[in-house]
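Weekly structure sync, notes
Attendees: PL, DS, HV (note-taker this week)

Item 1: ParA family protein
DS walked through the input record. Source organism listed as Haloplanus rubicundus. Sequence as pasted into the shared doc:
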Amino acid sequence: MADASDAAAALVGATGGAGTTRLTVELGTLLANDGRDVAVFDAAFATQGLSDYLPGRIDPDLTALLTDARDAPLADGLVEFPLGDVPGRLACCPTVAPFERLARAKSPDAAQALESRIAAATETFDHVLVDTPPVAANQSVAAVTATARTVVVAPASTRGRDAVQRTTGRLDDLAVGVDAVVTTRGELSVADVAVPEMDADVTAPTCLSDRSTATAVAAVADAAFDADPSTGDGAGLLDSVGEFVSR
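Item 1 (cont.): predicted structure, written out as tokens:
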């Protein structure tokens, strides 16, 4: 079990469409495959993308745990990600909610409840990942202030570069440091790790079957947690991780 102070990371989308949810799923999968227990929270209320990866009925979802079901145990909202025969666990707390509850889940009180849920998860999971939208709402602020590590995710484009600068400024205002900048679908000079484009037609996760994805996601794990997860070939962090580190 990691120290609680280092167990949680917010993966912050610098802009919409950065691929933050996909990267969060891939990172959680690689850590679980290494024998770690991982919890994922979906704070990206507008897109609710984490639910697309999960089977079955979702009730309660994260927004309910922050509002109407605030007294319910976290376990009630966790859905096991179907990874098959892996030594660890990937438990997800997705968002699937009507607009009215989404609005209430963005309140300051709900943001405080999110902080409490994240803190509770660090007591029972080796790692906690929060899929976090751009820093412009209460749940985003709660996510980055309740976690020890912050990873900014942006597409490898001019828009992505500008969004990284904007996001870094907002995090500075919150006295939150950036542990790593990750670009998707290519490289930027501002990135610590560059993740190659992943086939949108192939269902995530692909890090257990595709070496280039595994290598890049392992580099993200190293940047976020100083972790050295197995990539499925009996080795630790692949020797080729350096290919994906910009500085």
